[in-house]
């Protein structure tokens, strides 16, 4: 059996997945998304500069690169085409389409009764200011993105004005959430095929709790209602595997808010406090 891993570089996660797949006798190769080409009514379906991938059984998505609207649509089209041809894509293209868009993800979860932060989204500068004035302490996020990049906390009116103008000039969407005091920590719950395989408390140097932004992962014991919240979120979105991020208002386990669902999750920080190989567990569950 064969697999390709879509990623821009051979980082730690790619090496972990390759090693885990090898243990199941699956040959794998890292392929750059931007180098893919697809054909219709030709002698092949999918290739890059070097080879044809028609015999591939699995496609692991480790990045959806930024790009123009046309580029993003083409990448998703290729994934949907490969899925229709019977390739096992992890996570499914329909799931990726939902979860790369923070607003789309949030309303799907909120509509199922999952607690999420108060949020306002718009393209309108004046309404963005209106909601800053209303809440006074906000998080401004890119609609697309991960690892905590580009996320800004704003508590000052003049700063809000200047940042919102810059957002407007760059044709960005205002995705605004009311800040939830969380003691510079959150929970990362790693779900795979309806099972929680690992979890951590991420403690940041400031309000950002991403490991990529310097946070430290610590062991944590999850209450049953937090486990249920994470599992329900993964089920609502039909995720094969996911990183579910939950903040506890003022550190209270009885007041949780789901702030992010990662359909291309990292687990480097989590691996450091877990006594089994997470990549091997992911592959084992996905191949069942």
- Largest sheet features: 5 strands, antiparallel
The number of helical elements comes to 9
Distance between the termini: 14 Å
* Low-pLDDT regions: none
Approximate shape = globular
Output the structural class: alpha+beta
Spell out the helices and strands N to C: EHEEEEHEHHEHEEHEEEEHEEHH
Q: Strands, helices and their partners?
A:
Elements: E1 2-6, H1 12-22, E2 27-31, E3 37-38, E4 46-47, E5 58-61, H2 69-84, E6 88-90, H3 93-99, H4 102-110, E7 119-122, H5 125-135, E8 138-141, E9 152-154, H6 157-169, E10 174-178, E11 185-192, E12 195-203, E13 216-218, H7 224-236, E14 241-248, E15 256-262, H8 268-271, H9 278-287
Parallel strand pairs: 1-2, 1-5, 5-6
Antiparallel strand pairs: 3-4, 7-10, 8-9, 8-10, 11-12, 11-14, 12-13, 14-15
Helix pairs in contact: 1-9, 5-6
Describe this structure in words.
This protein is of the alpha+beta class. The chain is about 35% helix and about 25% strand. It is built from nine helices and 15 strands. It has helices at about 10-20, 70-85, 95-100, 100-110, 125-135, 155-170, 225-235, 270, 280-285, and strands at about 1-5, 25-30, 35-40, 45, 60, 90, 120, 140, 150-155, 175-180, 185-190, 195-205, 215-220, 240-250, 255-260. The strands form four sheets. It has a five-stranded antiparallel β-sheet with strand order 13-12-11-14-15. Strands 2-1-5-6 form a four-stranded parallel β-sheet, sandwiched between helices. β14 (about 240-250) and β15 form a beta hairpin. The longest helix has 16 residues, at about 70-85. The chain is globular. Pfam families: RimK. One of its GO terms (molecular function) is ATP binding. This is RimK family alpha-L-glutamate ligase. It comes from Halanaerobium polyolivorans.
